[in-house]
Specification:
The chain contains 16 helices and 2 strands. It has helices spanning 6-15, 25-36, 42-53, 58-79, 96-100, 102-120, 123-129, 131-145, 150-159, 167-192, 197-224, 227-230, 236-239, 245-249, 251-268, 277-287; strands at 89-90, 93-94. β1 and β2 form a beta hairpin. α2 (25-36) crosses α6 and α8 (131-145) runs antiparallel to α10 (167-192).
Length: 291
């Protein structure tokens, strides 16, 4: 999947971390360790792409993009902890808590979350995108990351262990735990460009579509891939007796659902006047990915 903004995002992201040596260096090292693990940078790329599509600048989008990625990274650190999914591998490397210990990993996640809002509400972001855009972005990201968004989805996930959760519960779980932050990324891009309400709504529909497709494809890969191909342990959902789209519907129906949600995302792009070819290609690439 091509990400034309990757180098710019990486440079901006690492520039947000405190520089030099500090007494709490172990914490900063743990934060950097998970940020540097890379991944696809799906969320910050979407933020920058939607900002550009709405006529905004890459520079204005970068603080918003970095904030989304830091929230996402914090969630991965916490998700891997023994009290959550207890995973030892993330993006092909040992999980944060396996390298730095559970206590430091917990603090690293906390610190990345707070740093995200420090960046999003800072003077540089306000100078580039405006005070109103930053305020709305903080509110949007907090809502989608909080108790009725990503954190709420994680709670539903924990409550669904060792049970056969019905499809409607699973759909709500995925919408909150995975799709909410992808929606946030798309909406923040529009906010950085001060786009109108119609474009903001269309971006949310796109984000929800690819977010749902992304997680269902993840469920498929969890059954069909290997640890090496996926960069994290496969089969952990079955081991933890979690309901997944695959366990409820089977692989073929899941592939049809991935196509349906992807088409929802593609249709949402009709609301934009600019060149949407990259976002269309990206949605298709996410749906067809092998890792």
């Amino acid at each position: 999947m091509n990400n034309p903004y990757l180098d710019t995002i990486e440079q901006a992201l690492f520039g947000c971390l405190p520089q030099g040596k500090h007494r709490e260096q172990k914490l900063l090292d743990a934060m950097r360790y998970s940020l540097e693990a890379g991944g696809k940078r799906v969320r910050p790329m979407l933020t920058v792409a939607f900002c550009a599509l709405c006529g905004g600048s890459v520079e204005a989008a970068l603080p918003f993009a970095c904030a989304v990625e830091m929230v996402h990274t914090y969630s991965l650190i916490h998700d891997d902890l023994p009290c959550m999914d207890d995973d030892d591998l993330r993006r092909g490397k040992p999980s944060n808590h396996k390298v730095f210990g559970e206590d430091t990993a917990l603090l690293a996640g906390d610190a990345l979350q707070t740093l995200a809002f420090e960046v999003l509400s800072g003077d540089e972001a306000a100078a580039l995108a405006g005070d109103s855009a930053c305020r709305r972005a903080c509110s949007t990201l907090a809502k989608y990351a909080g108790c009725v968004g990503m954190a709420g989805g994680q709670m539903i996930d924990l409550l669904s262990e060792n049970t056969q959760a019905p499809l409607e519960v699973l759909q709500e779980l995925v919408s909150k735990k995975t799709a909410c932050l992808i929606r946030a990324a798309c909406e923040l891009g529009c906010l950085a460009a001060n786009a109108d309400a119609a474009k903001l709504k269309a971006a949310a529909v796109y984000g929800e579509g690819i977010g749902m497709a992304f997680q269902i494809q993840d469920d498929i890969l969890d059954c069909t891939s290997t640890d090496e191909e996926l960069g994290k342990p496969v089969g952990s959902d079955a081991e933890n007796q979690k309901s997944t789209f695959v366990s409820l519907l089977g692989i073929e129906k899941c592939r049809a659902l991935v196509d349906s949600y992807t088409n929802q995302a593609l249709s949402a792009l009709d609301a934009f006047d600019g060149d949407t070819s990259m976002l269309k290609s990206y949605a298709l690439a996410l749906a067809q990915r092998k890792n």
